[in-house]
Amino acid sequence: MNIGILSSTYLPTVGGIQFLLYWLLKAMDRSSLRRTVGEIYAIVPASISDQEYADFENIKVIEYHRSLWSIKGMLAFIPQLAAIGKDRSLDLLHAFTTLPEGVCCLGTRFMTGIPYLVTCHGEDIAMDPRFGYGNRLKKTIAGLTRAALKGSAGITTISTDMARFAKNAGAPPTRIHIIPNGIELNGSVADAEVGGLVQELRWQYGITETHTVYLTLAGMRKIKGHEPLVRSFAAALQVNPNLLLFIGAHGLETEPIKKLVRALHIEDKVHFIGFVTGVEKKAWFNLADVYCNTAFFEPFGLVYLEAILYRDAVLGSIFGGGKDIFRHQENAWLVNPENDEEIVQGLLTLAEPAYRLKLVEAAQPLLPHYDINAIAGQYLELYRNIISK
Q: CB-based burial of residue 112 (10 Å sphere; 0-12 exposed, 13-18 middle, 19+ buried)?
């Protein structure tokens, strides 16, 4: 049984989906279950000439030299994917997102009969017209998405809310499987380099032991809820002035949110640190006391898991994957981003060290459920089940 995993994006392009795919491939590469599946091929764009992200012992990497992000690009790639499928005797294709990968796999199925699995990650099927969020807001894309889902042998998605969107997008309910995102648990969360950078950041921003440090890394889009977070943070400062918020992101909403911060006169309490990754990201997680996500919708929230790993308390949204992971006041503080009072209460409550520690300790047992090795095992088992039918 041979599997081809198709993605239109891969490292070194940095993002949650790219890291998730890399972690999954590494986990599958070393999994004992892999031997029961057969050969696994990662079919990815030719941006990985830096072999750091293609150095697998068992998984074979196939690079392609074409953008799939247009109908013309997808149509041109389908015969190439079909040829790969025939040459490698693939029994199953795994489209790592619905569009464009799912559409390419649908076309390949028509040419070769190879069944395919689709994974839905977020904006490919989720949508909220209030914020212009969702690819399916465009009729052409909605039609292609529906066709890709209906033609698949199975659909995986990452949260219960995403499963609801998958049904709405046209996925047959009996084919939907929820497999959450996962993270690597065996990586170092702190080392000498990270520790040194933490001290530099403390000095740079004047952070003392009296401060409570809040961190958010959500992309700067309206759907991510930075506006209610900043408004609520300003209100919380009226009660407790020893709070600091660091916003690690960039995007369309960066300037409007900076303008809001200036209007609220909290420039000395809210800092924009730009997009962070690697050692810098580790340092900020180590420095933070609370990780904040007040999104109006968050498909899953991989950073929630990272926050647990780095022992940060979580202020999360009730919309999306957060409520699948956490229980309010048991292992996180969940809020409605449409209610500033709830956010203010959460910010102030999590400023209490003893309460934060209680939530942090209660969240630690969640991590094994999201170990990338366990998640990879779920995918490998699903591959076998689909092929055996």
A: middle
Class of domain 192-369 (CATH, top level): alpha beta
Residue 190 has pLDDT above 70, yes or no: no
Beta bridge partners of 116: 93
**Confidence class for position 187, pLDDT limits 50, 70, 90:** low
Q: Where are the alpha helices (DSSP H) in the chain?
A: 16-30, 34-37, 71-87, 103-112, 139-150, 160-169, 192-205, 226-239, 254-263, 278-287, 302-309, 322-325, 340-349, 353-363, 372-388
Please give the single-letter amino acid code of residue 242: N
Cis status of the peptide bond prior to 12, with omega within 30 of 0? yes
Q: Span 200-218, mean pLDDT? A: 97
Strand partners, 117: 94, 154
In degrees rounded to 5, what are phi and psi of residue 44?
-135, 160
**Cα separation, 84 vs 60, whole angstroms:** 12
* Residue 66 in tokens: 């074409």
CATH annotation of 3-182+371-388: 3.40.50.2000
Task: Judge whether residue 188 has pLDDT over 70.
Answer: no
Question: What is the Cα–Cα distance from 17 to 96, expressed in whole angstroms?
Answer: 9
CATH 3.40.50.2000 boundaries in the chain: 3-182+371-388, 192-369
* Other CB atoms within 10 A of residue 308 CB: 25
